[in-house]
Amino acid sequence: MKNVRPMGAKRALIMLLVFGLALGMAFSQGAKETTSTPSGPVSLTIATWTSNPDQIALLDSFVQDFAKSKGIEIKSNFESIPFGEYNTKLSLELQSQNGPDLFWVLETAAPAFIESGLLANLDQAMKAYDPADISSDALELWSKGGSVYAIPFSTSPFFILYNQNLFAKAGAKNPDQLIAEGAWTWENFRKVSKQVTDNTGIWAFQTVDGQGYDARILHNLAPIVRSYGGDFWTEDGQVLINKSEAVAAVKLFHDMVYVDKSVVPPGNQSDFFSGNAAMTVGQISRVSKLKDASFAWGLAPMPSGPKGNAPVIGQAAIGAHSKSKHVELAAELVAYMTNKSSVAAMAGIWPPARKSVMDSEAFLTSNPMVTSVQMKEAVANSIKTGRVLPSHVKYPQIEVESKMSFDKLWQPNADVRKILDEVAAVYAKHIK
Amino acid sequence: MKKLSLQSTHRREAIIGWAFVTPQMAGFIIFVLLPLVSVFMYGMQEKNLLFGTSSFVGLDNFGRLFSDPLFVKSLVNTLIFSAGVVPLNLIFSLMLALYLGGGKTGTRFVRGIIFLPVVTSGVAWAIVWRYLLQGGTAGPVNWFLSQVGIEGPNWLFEKGWAMASVIVTRVMKNLGMNVLIFMGAVLNMPGDVIEAARIDGAKGWNLFSKIKLPLLMPTVMMVTIVTVIGSMRVFDTIKLMTDGGPEGSTMVMVYYIYHQAFRMFETGYASAIAVVLFGIVLVLTLGQWVSRKRVSYYEV
Amino acid sequence: MRYKEISKKLPYWMILVVLTILFVYPFWWMVVNSLNTITDIFGDPSFLPKSWAFSNYQEIFTVQPFARHYVNTLLVATVGTLGNVFVAAMAGYSFARIRFPGRNAAFLLLLTALMMPIEVTIIPLFFQMRSFGALDTLIPLMLIPIFGSQGAFSAFMLRQFFVTVPVELEEAARIDGLNPFSIFTKIMLPIAIPVLSSVGILAFIAIWNTYLEPLVFLNSLEKYTLPLSLTNFNDTYGLPQWNLQLAATALSIVPIMVVYLIFQQKVSNAMVGSGLK
């Protein structure tokens, strides 16, 4: 009996030890990242929605330059979250002890994130880098009470990318030919789209990133709606999405999908970049996807509508997490990443909000795949006249609730006006 | 040891007994009971995940539930989903179990393949079906249909079809489980009772409805409740295949909880929805206990 | 006679064929297209891969740390399963064989966990894990299956088993002078091995396939588990990289399929048993 008892206890102890060890292993995994010794390298996590290795490398080069200038070592950790889930995932991560120290902010989420207090005030950090050079229009969305909470690193207009081979095969006039004739309107956009689909059997148009029916519905509809003189809602609280201009514009798109059947429909994954659609909407950052394209491609500004051109700008900003352990460093890094030299280096991917860079000749040749004429006409000019999407502090609610109504559009016999009335009711409820 | 008084033996037993159950019970309290209490508390707060604010609002969230068209929709959709999944699953699994249960050749094989989706993750299953169910003729399902001259719908993007699609893929995913359970029950049916009924001339539908079904009733009841509760919990299928759309036609309660909490950041209101879900599951479980007592007459 | 036999068996075989197509085709399609390039996936379905792009299976390891995700999942599933089985065996044994005050109440309380969907408590669990500092670690993914409904289920199954073990075994051991813990580890655990492995396999499969918990608790890419990893094969702008996603999905199913094929009978029995009471 005497030697049996310790045996049992020993066994139990060993089992507990093994179990504890395994748990400990897992814990240490988590702990490793969180404990940063002051002497060693500072570890900073940066959340983005791009996972393009070249773009990440470029961003990381800024981080390293910044570290050098400060005489410290920074271990950067880039985290890419898919666009469609960006806000959800990010908001969860910001609650965690391992949350990102710097993060990109979507324009539609700007007011909510600023309101939440999760973004650090950048006024102090920006001072070193000529803040007056940043276009005040561009900063407007990211400021509150005269202070800046995130800095736009990208002010990027949307334009049309097209497949020259498919247009040639269809015997249709391509966007550049229509521009030359001064006939690059949404009506003609629709006409040539139908021609392309009828003559080649290939979709004529893929919505922006293929997400134009859900995550990017505003990006998809805004260029048409605005060039028809409409809008979604305005800053002063007017809801315009169900006014006749907007209705006519949405109807045009709807007819393309369901009457002409020239647009890649919801749920279909045919992609412009792999040659399965003749046109799509993109930004300059998407051009790199055409590096290995098997077709000749062109780039044109968005078509115009009855109310002329109404370029739409997609904005994205970077901010520092106010609860980060290295919040000051993070804020400085944000300012550094949007200083003149960084902005100039990014300009070919993410067009600048800094006036000095935007007006420079170098900007027009900053993307090796895009000619300076294209850059001027489809990007630089649009930045000057373009507007960003509407935003609101309640946008998370608006997005989810309005989707229920927007979804009804994607039926062959949808009553566009009635549906937009419903969307307008959702907007009105939250915007007030 | 033999001389120990009865009382001290009892005490010893009590200590040992509790020592053995303490890890499980402590974990249960921390990871089940405490969160359950919290969910009721959060349900009475306005608690914003993004803003980090929370304040007590009493029963406001519960009052808001029934004026929230999306909540009502998610509740109705959950019921539709269950009403689709449960009967389909039960009927097919019972039929297959009865049909395959007789130890015919190939039974093992069929049992094996029906069971494949059960062990596959819901994520993998949803990913594959999202591809298979593409609209136009791009998806294999519609391609097959087009071969026989049918123009298939855009499954996951048309109202009605989307719900039907998630129901059917879900049924296929879990069918094998119930087939197995029913097979077990079929094997345990007392052969003499059935033989006697056969001699008395019962066969076909009569034999099934009058003899076999009553014998299987306890299992059927249990499987029904488990399947109903399982269908209330559907998440990955919805998130990955339809994202709750189109028009919210596949927005079920669990996905709405996720939406409210992590997309609109209203964790308080989301908790109130979770409380309702808990209530439903609780009623169903109690229902099972009660009905089990009632049908236990048949238990053999 | 012969004709009659065939006509009787025909519907049976037809059902077999239909079921096989329905249930095997999705897997077959997945494997075929995991070997196609992204453009070939969009063509008409084919029975065999068109491009035999084995590179997909290499690429999945380079576009994200898929190997790491695999290891994470293995770690979580192994620790979770062992913990689940051991803790549940202790509790199940005690509930079955030791008389202690409050036993029935405790057992009944534990049973409430059986029916508790994690979806109900996920929000409080998130805040709780945050206060433990356990967000973005694998800890919650291991602890929840040990103590949540999966744990209660295992404890319940094991209790049901231990109730059936003859008392004489224990008596003999006690007379031999074994202490209660030794009785448990030396006598009870060995005879419970079949049940332990059944509940263990069920726990393993459940943990391997868990999606909601990692979705809510994890941030860092290098901590992802497989279900999360699979949904993360997107290109730069969030569009799924179909070919890679399918290759990864196929790879993620392999271990579970192996476990299933080896232990088919055991898994089936465990599942059947799980339903019977």
SSE map:
The complex is a heterotrimer of chains A (432), B (300) and C (277).
Chain A: H1 4-34, E1 42-48, H2 53-70, E2 74-80, H3 86-93, E3 102-106, H4 110-116, H5 123-126, H6 136-140, E4 143-144, E5 147-148, E6 151-157, E7 159-163, H7 164-170, H8 175-180, H9 186-200, E8 203-206, H10 217-227, H11 244-258, E9 277-282, E10 297-301, E11 312-320, H12 327-337, H13 340-346, H14 355-358, H15 361-364, H16 372-385, E12 387-388, H17 395-406, H18 416-431
Parallel strand pairs in A: 1-2, 1-3, 8-9, 11-12
Antiparallel strand pairs in A: 3-11, 4-5, 6-11, 7-9, 7-10
Chain B: H1 6-42, E1 45-48, E2 53-56, H2 60-65, H3 69-100, H4 107-119, H5 122-132, H6 140-147, H7 161-187, H8 191-199, H9 204-232, H10 236-241, H11 253-262, H12 267-295
Antiparallel strand pairs in B: 1-2
Chain C: H1 2-34, H2 38-41, H3 55-63, H4 66-97, H5 103-114, H6 118-132, H7 139-147, H8 149-163, H9 167-175, H10 180-191, H11 193-208, H12 212-217, H13 226-230, H14 242-262, H15 264-276
Helix pairs in contact in C: 1-14, 3-14, 4-7, 4-8, 4-11, 5-8, 7-8, 8-11, 9-10, 11-15
- Quickly name the level 1 CATH class of the largest domain in chain A: Alpha Beta
Query: What's the average pLDDT of chain B?
Result: 88
Low-pLDDT stretches of chain B are 296-300
The CATH superfamily name of the largest domain in chain B is MetI-like
Output the radius of gyration of chain A.
25 Å
Described by the principal axes of the CA atoms, the overall outline of chain B is flat
Query: Fraction of residues of chain B in helices?
Result: over 70%
Please, how many helices of chain B? 12
Helix and strand succession of chain A?
HEHEHEHHHEEEEHHHEHHEEEHHHHHEHH
Q: At CATH's second level, what is the architecture of the largest domain in chain A? A: 3-Layer(aba) Sandwich
How far apart are the termini of chain B? 43 Å
The largest pleated sheet of chain B is described as:
2 strands, antiparallel
Structural class of chain B: mainly alpha
